[in-house]
Amino acid sequence: MRHLTESFDLSVSRACRCVGLSRSAFYREVDDWTVRDADVIAALAELVQDRPSRGFWKCRKILRRQGRAWNHKRIYRVYKRMNLHLRRRAKQRLPKRHRVELYVPQLPDTVWSADFMSDALWNGRRFRTFNVVDDFNREVLHIEIDTSITSERLVRIFQRLQENHGLPQVLRTDNGPEFLGEAFVTWAKAAGMAIQYIQPGKPNQNAYVERFNRTYREDILDQHLFTSLDDVREATFWWMLEYNEERPHDSLGDRTPAEVRQQSAGVSTFELSS
């Protein structure tokens, strides 16, 4: 309409009739989306400031838990305009395999999964992380960080976990030399903790901790350049609190691991009283 009035010297009424709009549309002020959706922009920017790997649905669920009643279409429109959408990984073509569902424990501290990860500081010094996850509610129980973690070190780690959580009935691991070491195997047998080794070359049999490793790497190891092991430990400590107490999990019905553990404790107490 403005083009018609300025270039062809048409009246406002005639320009509006040409394009099929009302005269009020000509005089209406342009509503900038950055002003209209300023509150949504601020909320999304806060969510992805420290966690750029968060996708749209994870952001939307966190906003809903915070009491934000925005429509998901509005959130997605702003999310895309802010160029926050992540590139989706192409689906790999894999040979057909017989799928076997992974056992889901019915109670906490029944089956734990453990695995190692490797990364490096800014000066190239390599370090390892030892991650322990409860298969029942995907709760991360411990992450040990050091340049070397031996079989004897694992014994001390699980002794600390025994004081705080107790020990699981079964510990699921791969066939790493630390898990096969005589010191750890002997101690686990004496403590009554069975070790279930997965088949070599089949990490999908330890899928819970493998999926956790990916989240930990994307949120912490790949997002920061650490100068010392203490920096890694501090960032990991605060992230663990968020992961267990604030981050909703799709596999838990958008609940946090802490909520699932608390609800499980309430159900167990009710069953005992009954």
Distance between the termini: 75 Å
Q: What characterizes the major β-sheet? A: 5 strands, mixed
Which geometry do the CA atoms define? elongated
Low-confidence stretches: none
Number of helices: 13
Count of individual beta strands: 5
- Helix content estimate: 40-55%
Q: From N to C, what is the helix and strand string? A: HHHHHHHEEEHEHHEHHH
- Radius of gyration, taken over Cα atoms and rounded to an integer in Å: 26 Å
Largest beta sheet: what is the strand line-up?
3-2-1-4-5
Structural class based on helices, strands and sheet pairing: alpha/beta
Average pLDDT for all residues: 87
Key attributes of the depicted protein:
13 helices; alpha/beta; about 15% strand; five-stranded mixed sheet; about 270 residues; 5 strands
Commentary on this structure:
This protein is an alpha/beta fold and 274 residues long. It contains 13 helices and five strands. The protein has a five-stranded mixed β-sheet with strand order 3-2-1-4-5, sandwiched between helices. Strand 1 and strand 2 form a beta hairpin.
SSE order and pairing:
Elements (H helix, E strand, L loop, with lengths): L1 H6 L4 H8 L3 H5 L5 H4 L1 H12 L6 H10 L6 H10 L29 E10 L5 E9 L4 E8 L4 H14 L5 E4 L3 H4 L1 H10 L2 E4 L9 H15 L7 H17 L11 H17 L1
Parallel strand pairs: 1-4, 4-5
Antiparallel strand pairs: 1-2, 2-3
Helix pairs in contact: 8-10
Summed up, what is this model?
With 274 residues, the protein is of the alpha/beta class.
